[in-house]
Structures are given as C-alpha cells and as structure tokens.
TrEMBL record:
Reactions performed catalytically: a very long-chain fatty acid + ATP + CoA = a very long-chain fatty acyl-CoA + AMP + diphosphate; a long-chain fatty acid + ATP + CoA = a long-chain fatty acyl-CoA + AMP + diphosphate; tetracosanoate + ATP + CoA = tetracosanoyl-CoA + AMP + diphosphate
Protein name, per record: long-chain-fatty-acid--CoA ligase
GO biological process, one term: long-chain fatty acid import into cell
Ranges for domain AMP-dependent synthetase/ligase: 91-419
EC number from the UniProt entry: 6.2.1.3
Listed InterPro entries: AMP-bd_C, AMP-bd_C_sf, AMP-binding_CS, AMP-dep_synth/lig_dom, ANL_N_sf
Record's GO cellular component terms: endoplasmic reticulum membrane; plasma membrane
Domain AMP-binding enzyme C-terminal: 533-608
Cell compartments where the protein resides: Cell membrane
Length: 656
C-alpha cells in the first residue's frame, strides 16, 4: 500500500548501505579499481602538465582572452557608423558620469566633467579655427588634463591629432609639424618652469606664419602677435554634446592620430595610427588583466604611444580611473601610489631602475599595485624590483607604434618580452630572419629569399602585411614607408613589415629582445635618431662631419650618445661652441655625452658611415688613441675625457 511505499522510499538510503552478498562484491571492487585508475591518470596528467607544460594554464587564459578581444575588434570593424574609443568614452559617461576619470595635482575630474570640457573645446575650435572633419591639428602640450579634453574635443569634430613631443625644438619641431599636414597648432603657457612649450613655438612662429598656420594658446591672453588665446573662448562655449554627424564619414581605418617615432633612420616620422590600431593598443590593458575597478597610474608622456594608447585609451576601454602626472618622479612614486590607491602602473626600464636606486624604506611593500605594464626592463632590475616591492605581475611588452606585430609576457617570465603561441602566429603571421649586422640587411639564399633564424638564434623580426595586420606607414614620407616594407621574405611576392629589431625565440617559446638595428639607439626611454644629432653637431663652427651612434655603459639601459667627428681645416675642437649648440637644439636624452675627434671617418663603398667598430670600441680612453671629450654639465662645456673621469663614470660617481 501507500504507507509501505513511503516506508520503502524513506529507508532506501539504508537499503543501499546493507551488507552485500559475496557475489555482488566483484562488480563493486572492479568499479572501485577503475575509479582509482582514472584518478591516478588524472593526477599523472596534471603532474605531467605541471612538469612539461608549466605555462599551459596561462597560455589557455591568454588565448581565450585574446580571442574575445579579437572578436570585439572584428565586430567594431564591421560596425557602421564607426564605434571608436571616443564612443567607448561616451558610453562610459552614460554608465558612470560621476566616476573619477582623471586625478591631477590634487584635482579630480569625473567622466562627465571631461566630456563637458571636451564639448566646450570642440565648439570653440569649430568656431575659431573653422575646423571640419579630416583636418589635422597638432598638439604641443605637456601631461595635463587639457591634453585629454582637447584631444577628445578634436575627435568629436572628426579631426586627427598629431601628438608632438614637447621636448623638441627648432628644426625638429618644424619638421614634425610639417610632415603631418596640420594647419592648426595648439600649445600652452607651461604651468611649471620646466615647461617651455610657448617659448619653443615662438621660436618657429615666423615660419609658421609664412605657411599660414593658425596657432592657439590655452590661456586667457597672449601678447605675442600671431598666437591666439583660446581659454576665454572655451570658457564661454556651450558644453552641450556635439552632433555625431560632424564625424559621419570617419571609418575604422581612418586616421585617428599621428604619433612620432624615430624608426630606424632619419628625423622623427609621423606614424599613421588608425582607429583600428587605437583599439588594438587599448586592448593591452584588458589582455594584462586590468579591470574597470583598477586605478591606473600614468607618468609617461602622453605624446608617446605607451602613455597615450596603452595608458589613456586603455583606461577608457576599461572604464577605470587615471592618476596623471606631469612626469616620472622616483622620490614621489610610491607615495603617490599609496595616496591614490594605485593598482596598475606603467613603466619603461629606466623608471624601475630609478625606483630600485632609491634608498630602502620599511614600507616599500605597503601599496596596492598588482600589475605593471611596460617595456625595456632589464633582467637584474626586474628581479630586484620584485624582491623589494612585492609580488607585482610584470607585463613586459614588445611593440612599435607603426608596427603590425607585438608581444606581451603574460607569464611574468623574467627577461622575456612575450611568448609565441599558435593562435597569435596564425592570425598575425611573423617570423625571425637571419640578419647581417655589418651590412645591415637580411641574409638571403640563392633563390633570393630570406632565411629563417633557428630556435635560439637572434634574428630580425618581420610581420607579414595582411588585411588583418596592415602597415599604414608614415605621413608625408612615402620613401620611409617603402623602406619599412620587405618583399620576397619566405616566398616570391610576399610583403612583410621590417621592425628593425633583433629578437630571439627560445625552445620554450619565449621571446627575448636583443637589440635595435639601423641608425637609432635608445637612451632614457627615448629613441634617438643619429642623423638628427649629426645635423646639429655639424652646425658647430669647428665640425666638418659627424658620425653619431650609441654605446653601452655598464649599469644603464640602452645606449648613450657618442659621436665621431672630423674638424674643418685649420680648426681645433671648440669645447664651448659645440656644447652651446648641443644644449640649445637637442633634448637632454639626445645630446652626445662623448665625442671622438678623428682625422677622417670610415666609409663603406656606398659612402655610408661605418659604426660597428666605433660601437665596439666604446669610450675607454686607455684603448682609444683619438682625442676623447665628455659633456660636462657643471662646467658647461666638453672636457677632455681622462682616465679619472672614465673611472668615475664606470663607478657611477658621475651621473649620466
């Protein structure tokens, strides 16, 4: 009956636990044995994976994350009208208008504050400069909030912005301005004694006026004829949203920005950055595990792709808060991080070295920083940084502003700049090819094709130019654009982007940066074009020719500037005159600290200056018979490089 059924149901668990007859034990024993075997296989498999594939989990997480970001980019490519980083910012304004977007020198600006200010800037420029969609505007501004909302205001008008390095002067500034095709230049007065942007613009103002360039100053007034104050007009402008149809014809591969890079030769070049490339770079925060809850610390210059694309645009994509500083300060860095609860920081190798060189304190690990994103980190500094400042995930990157290939070290493997995986290589084909350092060209076989470097061998990184991984090139410089294209690499008719960088892949698929090729070296986090420095040196009255290169200094990242020069007939090396030209026309990081006076410069058969031997010989006065000079900032002239000075440099008693 029903009561019996209820009783049987309630007693069913006890029924299962009843003693089993002997004949029934065999299947149970067999099942137990198979479960034991299966569990053992699982344990063995996990042990095998841990022993022989220690990064499998990180690889899987990164691949899944990358595929998700790739699908988003594919969706944005197809979306009409365009969905740009600007639109992402506007969506963030709608989601959390009161959330702090920028924090700068004690002041907070919410997403809504920045949006409204950018509307005012856009309307003021539209009225004063008559800007229309597609007009390029050059920004010659330091790291300040006005940089951010001026760029956003221009983006709302559909105007690309050219981000000028505010350290450059004279000829270099004119060159950078001219090659982007801008008709408008925006600068500011400079709120600190270190900012001389207005002075630099006034120096080239006659040339700008001759070319019909409109110059605007972010100030209420200006007594210089030809420079128009803009702040008063901005304050009076409406902060109502600008109509979207002002940028109706902008698409995903329209130019969004011009960011300047030295590349491998010549003066700075204006790399064309499309809206698609802005998205790709901004995704690096997401790929590194950054979220909307993070507080992102930017102390790198916004005219750099690292500070602007990865830092600023990445924070817009994530919807987080940015702590913006004018420049890096080792003494205030950790105090800033603690004060603002910073969780993600940016770096270049030199900045972390500066932090490690600071006197040790008891509270060094008392912070909330969990991720550091950057590039150029030396292995010894990497290790010391982690030991001193705690378990921070280092996300070392490799990328180039104009390039079509990049890597990210998502495993925190010390010394590596990334990791090779099949998905990345399938979507964005790349390879390492053998490179002749002396001839500065790829090694080719009898069929005229390049030879791939073996695992563990240093080679030139090249990325295949495809629809998914395009190379747009440089504004107003078709010749330099073509020089970066390399054809007949692996098969006849193919086309690759020449990064100009030497890398190495190891047997565990990690990627290591080895060196740069060409006429560029890197010092103090900046790329230095040797031809630009040589042009300035030959302005000195005594110098006939100059061959500029970078040399290694123990304990320092990159290469410091050095020049081999020949003198004009009947002239001696003028220490004071050369110093004055170098200091006046070159930023600090580009000034050659060592000069070697030679009777003649060694040339190739095609009249190219040879550098390899000079680089190898360095600046040791005991090994070099030519006169050597050192740039002495205290004496404000070049002085003879003696054994004592050389020793002081190697012992770090003299600061470089």
């Amino acid at each position: 009956d029903d009561s019996d059924k209820s009783f049987n149901f309630l007693c069913f668990p006890l029924y299962l636990l009843r003693p089993a007859p002997a004949c029934a034990l065999r299947p149970v024993a067999e099942m137990t044995m198979w479960f034991t075997v299966l569990a053992g296989l699982v344990v063995l498999s996990l042990s095998y994976v841990k022993a022989f594939c220690p990064h499998l989990q990180a690889d899987c997480v990164y691949i899944v994350r990358s595929l998700g970001l790739g699908l988003r980019l594919l969706k944005y490519r197809r979306r009409k009208p365009i969905y740009s980083v600007l639109d992402c910012f506007l969506d963030a304004v709608k989601r959390h208008p009161a959330k702090t977007f920028l924090h700068f020198e004690g002041r907070e600006y919410s997403y809504e504050d920045v949006d409204r200010q950018s509307n005012k800037v856009g309307r003021a420029l539209q009225a004063e400069a008559r800007l229309k969609e597609g007009d390029t505007v050059a920004l010659f501004l330091p790291n300040e909030p006005c940089f951010v909302w001026t760029w956003l205001g221009l983006a709302k008008l559909g105007c690309p912005a050219a981000l000028l390095n505010f350290n450059i002067r004279s000829k270099s500034l004119l060159h950078c301005f001219s090659c982007c095709g801008a008709k408008v230049l925006i600068t500011c007065t400079g709120e600190t004694p270190c900012d001389h942007t207005q002075d630099a613009v006034e120096e080239i103002l006659p040339t700008l006026r001759e070319q019909g360039i409109s110059v605007y100053l972010l100030s209420d007034k200006c007594g210089v004829q030809g420079i128009n104050p803009l702040s008063d007009r901005i304050s009076k402008a409406s902060d109502e949203p600008l109509p979207r149809d002002l940028r109706a014809n902008i698409h995903i591969r329209s130019t969004a920005l011009y960011i300047y890079t030295s590349g491998t030769t010549g003066l700075p070049k204006a790399a064309v950055v499309t809206h698609e490339r802005v998205w790709a770079a901004s995704f690096l925060q997401a790929a590194s595990g950054v979220t909307s809850e993070d507080v992102f610390y930017i102390n790198l210059p916004l005219y750099h792709s690292a500070g602007f694309l990865i830092g600023l645009c990445g924070s817009i994509e994530r919807g987080n808060t940015v702590i913006l500083r004018r420049k890096f300060s080792a003494s205030q860095f950790w105090d800033d991080c603690r004060k603002h609860n910073v969780t993600v920081m940016q770096y270049i190798g030199e900045t972390l070295r500066y932090l490690c060189n600071m006197p040790k304190k008891e509270n060094e690990k008392n912070h909330k920083v969990r991720i550091a994103i950057g590039n150029g980190l030396r292995t010894d500094v990497w290790t010391e940084f982690l030991n001193r400042f705690g378990d921070i995930k280092i996300r070392e990157l490799y990328a180039a502003t104009e390039g079509n290939i990049g890597f990210i070290n998502y495993t925190s493997k010390i010394g590596a700049v990334g990791r090779v995986n099949f998905v990345h290589r399938f979507l964005f084909p790349y390879t390492l090819i053998k490179f002749d350092i002396e001839k500065e060209e790829p090694v080719r076989n009898s069929q005229g094709l390049c030879i791939e470097a073996a695992t563990g061998e240093t080679g030139l990184l090249v990325g295949k130019i495809t629809h998914r991984s395009p190379f747009v090139g440089y504004a107003g410089n078709k010749q330099q654009t073509e020089k970066k294209r390399l054809s007949d690499v692996l098969e006849k008719g193919d086309l690759y982007f020449n990064t100009g960088d030497l890398l190495r892949f190891d047997k565990d698929n990690f990627v290591y940066f080895q060196d740069r090729v060409g006429d560029t070296f890197r010092w103090k986090g900046e790329n230095v074009a040797t031809s630009e420095v040589a042009d300035i040196l030959t302005m000195a009255h005594c110098i006939l020719e100059a061959n500029v290169y970078g040399v290694k200094v123990d304990g320092h990242e990159g290469r410091i500037g050095m020049a081999a020069v020949t003198l004009k007939e009947g002239q001696d090396f003028d220490c004071s005159d050369t110093y004055s030209y170098v200091v006046k026309y070159l930023p600090a990081y580009a000034r050659p600290r060592f000069i070697r006076v030679q009777p003649c410069l060694e040339m190739t058969g095609t009249f190219k200056m040879k550098k390899v031997k000079l680089v190898e010989e360095g600046f040791n006065p005991s090994l070099i018979t030519d006169p050597l000079y050192f740039l002495d900032l205290e004496k404000k002239k070049y002085v003879l490089l003696t054994e004592d000075i050389y020793k002081a440099i190697t012992l770090k008693e003299i600061k470089l």
